[in-house]
Amino acid sequence: MLPSSIALHQIGPVLETLSAVGIFVFAASGALAAARLGQTLVTFAFFALVTGVGGGTLRDLLIGAPVFWVHDPVPAVTCMIAALLVWFTPRRLWSDRALDWLDAVGLAAFAVFGAAKAMSYGIPPFVAAMMGIVTACVGGILRDLLAHEPSILLRPELYVTAAAFASGLFVLLHWWGMDVPVAGVIAALLGFLLRAIAIRRGLGLPVYRDE
C-alpha cells in the first residue's frame, strides 16, 4: 500500500534542518528588508520574526497543530540571531538581489517541511501540498506588506509555482514510497533550482490578457 501520511518521528533531523534553514534565511530576508528602510534594531527583530515564522504559524493554525514557535523558543531565537547578523553586517556586503536569494532558499525548505508536517497530522496529500505553499509564501507576503513593497507574488518570475513544485514533488515522491529524508532533500533542491532559474532568467508563466 502506498503511503499517504507521515508519522511524526519520520520528520527526523533532515526535515527539521530544512525547517531551521528556512526560518533563518527568511528571518534574514525580513531583517534585510528593514535594513533597506533604515529601521531600528527593534524593527529588524520584528521583521525577522514575522517573516521567519509567519507561514508556519498559519500552517499550524490551519492543520490544528500547536503553533511551533510558541512552544519552542529556538525558532524565535533563530530569528533574533538572523536580525542581529544583518544589523552588524555592513550594508555594502549585501547585494541588491540578496533578499531574492535568501527568499529562494527559504521558499524551497519551507515548502517541503510544511507539506511534511501537514501529512504528519493526517492531512490528505493534496491539501498537505497546499500547506507547503502556505508555509513557504506567507512569511514573504507579510515582509513585503510591512515594508510597503510590491508583493513578491506580483513579480513576473516564478514564485508560488516554485513552492508548489517543491511541496508537490515531495508529496509525490513520498507517495511513490521514497524515504522521507531523501524525498525532502530532492524536492527542496529542485524547488530551489527552479526558483534560481526564475531569478536569473526572469522565467515566468504567461499572464492573463483580456483580448
From TrEMBL:
Topological category with respect to the lipid bilayer: Multi-pass membrane protein
Q: Which GO terms describe its cellular component?
A: plasma membrane
Kindly give the Pfam families that the UniProt entry links to this protein.
Answer: Gly_transporter
Principal place where this protein is found? membrane
Q: Which residues cross the membrane?
A: 12-34, 41-62, 68-89, 101-120, 126-146, 158-176, 182-199
Q: The organism sits in which domain of life?
A: Bacteria
Which keywords are on file for this protein?
Cell membrane, Membrane, Transmembrane, Transmembrane helix
User: Could you confirm whether the keyword Cell membrane appears in this record?
Assistant: yes
Compartments annotated for it: namely: Cell membrane
Signal peptide residues on this chain, from the entry's feature table: none
Q: Which residues form the Glycine transporter domain?
A: 17-89, 101-174
**Known PANTHER family for this protein?**
INNER MEMBRANE PROTEIN, UPF0126 INNER MEMBRANE PROTEIN YADS-RELATED
Q: Which family does this protein fall into?
A: Belongs to the UPF0126 family.
* Descriptive protein name: YghA protein
* Taxonomic source organism: Sphingobium herbicidovorans (strain ATCC 700291 / DSM 11019 / CCUG 56400 / KCTC 2939 / LMG 18315 / NBRC 16415 / MH) (Sphingomonas herbicidovorans)
Species lineage: Bacteria, Pseudomonadati, Pseudomonadota, Alphaproteobacteria, Sphingomonadales
